[in-house]
Q: What sequence folds into this?
């Protein structure tokens, strides 16, 4: 809330609430509440408390990784095995955060200001931030992103609570539908955001390459899917750029 | 009762949940600090991130967790294809795609599994 000569069009708090409001208008409200109702069913099956599930939501903040965490710990995997499985499923946050940072950074952003929005980075926030941030003044993008992330997290926590009170009466068909929200929403929202050829190809190739790597029993399948599919897609993008340049 | 009650459960959560997840986000902040919005490297990084998300989608679809595994593969694949087509056909609406995909999954599961 600086009182410089330049009038500030958007105060810090109104930017935060703008982000919060944007999260509640996003289709991810349904996705997150539903997904975490499904996760609550899973966590209860394995004997975890509501408080523990909520703490894991705040601390890990990655639906698919929490599925791994809960089923590995609950299924009796060792702590080291669980940590490795969760860590591998979260490697995706490295490129996601790297890609998002330049969008988020304003002229006076310090590195430590980026730690909280980096923690909030998950598929939901990543996809919506790319869509919404261009319309936000650069100096307010970090605060806006924090509002967006906090809003999404509150939806997930609400889903945990609803799930714990509902889960005994939920038929398996419905919890299956809740777990299906993640792949369905990830596919559509990633496709909506994929404007460049490189992004579209990466999406299509990733869908094909992962099952192949799993059947070939190659470890670190998610990481290799990203590197192989992403690099091939980028190479095609570069090649097309060259061909266009040559034609001119 | 699963051995993760009380304080121990939260220590485990920090050690095998929070730390393995957030080390990558922290590394992202460190690596991404010097990158320019227009840089070519960023096109590649975005493609890699998108491909990993595609991998997460494929993994849940083909190797599903919990009760989703009770749905036949044909139902899961039909549902995601229908949802995606609905998204493309109806003004690129995410909500429509999601609703159609879920409806097909529930209908398919209802007819085939019961």
A:
């Amino acid at each position: 809330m600086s009182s410089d000569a330049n009038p500030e069009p958007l105060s810090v708090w109104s930017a935060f609430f703008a982000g919060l409001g944007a999260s509640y208008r996003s289709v991810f409200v349904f996705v997150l509440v539903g997904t975490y109702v499904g996760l609550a069913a899973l966590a209860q099956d394995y004997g975890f408390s509501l408080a523990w599930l909520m703490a894991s939501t705040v601390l890990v903040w990655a639906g698919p990784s929490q599925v791994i965490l809960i089923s590995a710990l609950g299924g009796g995997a060792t702590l080291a095995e669980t940590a490795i499985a969760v860590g591998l499923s979260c490697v995706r946050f490295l490129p996601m955060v790297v890609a998002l940072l330049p969008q988020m950074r304003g002229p006076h952003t310090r590195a430590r200001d980026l730690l909280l929005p980096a923690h909030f980075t998950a598929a939901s926030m990543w996809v919506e931030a790319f869509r919404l941030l261009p319309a936000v003044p650069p100096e307010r993008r970090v605060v806006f992103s924090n509002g967006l992330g906090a809003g999404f997290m509150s939806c997930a926590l609400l889903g945990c609570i609803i799930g714990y009170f509902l889960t005994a009466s939920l038929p398996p068909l419905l919890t299956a539908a809740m777990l299906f929200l993640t792949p369905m929403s990830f596919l559509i929202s990633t496709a909506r955001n994929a404007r460049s050829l490189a992004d579209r190809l990466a999406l299509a190739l990733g869908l094909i390459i992962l099952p192949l790597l799993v059947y070939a029993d190659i470890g670190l399948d998610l990481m290799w899917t990203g590197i192989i599919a992403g690099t091939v897609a980028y190479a095609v993008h570069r090649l097309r750029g060259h061909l266009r340049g040559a034609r001119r | 009762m699963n051995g993760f009650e009380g304080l121990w459960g939260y220590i485990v959560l920090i050690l095998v949940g929070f730390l393995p997840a957030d080390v990558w986000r922290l590394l992202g902040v460190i690596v991404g600090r010097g990158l320019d919005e227009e840089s070519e490297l960023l096109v590649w990084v975005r493609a890699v991130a998108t491909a990993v998300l595609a991998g997460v989608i494929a993994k849940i679809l083909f190797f599903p967790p919990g009760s989703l595994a009770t749905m036949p593969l044909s139902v899961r694949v039909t549902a995601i294809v229908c949802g995606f087509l609905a998204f493309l056909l109806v003004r690129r609406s995410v909500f429509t795609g999601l609703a159609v995909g879920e409806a097909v999954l529930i209908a398919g599961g209802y007819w085939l599994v019961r």
Summary: The mean pLDDT of chain B is 90. Residues 65-114 of chain B form one domain. Chain B has four helices and no strands.
